[in-house]
C-alpha cells in the first residue's frame, strides 16, 4: 500500500498547503531531495494553539500541533511531487518547541510528528531528528517543523 492509500485508510485528509508567511518558498526540490520550509500548526488558516509548551500548552496539545505540522509539510510535498507515493524516505525532521523555562521534553512533543510519519510511510518514515527548545516561534506557535524528504524518480 502506498502513502496516499495509507493516509486514506487512516482517515486522514491532507490540508491545503499553507502559504508562506514570509519572504521564502515553501519547499525546494534539489538533487533528489525535497526540503520543506518550517511548518506551524495551521488548520484551515488558523493557528491551533499559541504559547509556550508546559506553561500555556499541554504536552498532548503540543503533540497534536506537531502532527498538524507534519500534515502541512506533507501537503507541501504533495504539491511539489504530485503524489506522496514518490516519497522514498523521510530523511530528517527538525522540530522547534516554544518551551517554558525548565521544560525539557521537546523530544516527547516531536514524537507526535515522528509516530505519524512512521504510520504513514512504515520503515521509510523512520528518520533522523532534532528536537530544539526555543524561546519564541513565529506567530506565537508552540511548535514548528521542517522536513527533508528523499524523492523517488
Give an account of the 3D structure.
This protein is α+β, with helices and mostly antiparallel strands and 153 residues long. It has helices at 3-9, 59-81, 106-121; strands at residues 27-30, 33-39, 42-43, 46-47, 87-98, 128-134, 143-151. It has a single domain, classed as 60s Ribosomal Protein L30, Chain: A (2-Layer Sandwich), CATH 3.30.1330. The protein contains three helices and seven strands; from the N terminus they run αββββαβαββ. A five-stranded mixed sheet has the order 1-2-7-5-6. The chain starts with a helix and ends with a strand.
Keywords:
153 residues; 5-stranded mixed beta sheet; alpha+beta; two-stranded antiparallel sheet; globular; 60s Ribosomal Protein L30, Chain: A
Low-confidence regions: none
Helix content range: 25-40%
Q: What gross morphology would you assign?
A: globular
SSE succession:
HEEEEHEHEE
Radius of gyration: 14 Å
As for the number of domains, it is: 1
The class by helix and strand makeup works out as: alpha+beta
Counted by DSSP, the helix tally is 3
The CATH class is: Alpha Beta
How can the largest sheet be summarized? 5 strands, mixed
Mean pLDDT: 97
The fold-level CATH name is 60s Ribosomal Protein L30, Chain: A
Percent of residues in beta strands?
Answer: 25-35%
Q: How are the SSEs ordered, and which strands pair?
A:
Layout: H1 3-9, E1 27-30, E2 33-39, E3 42-43, E4 46-47, H2 59-81, E5 87-98, H3 106-121, E6 128-134, E7 143-151
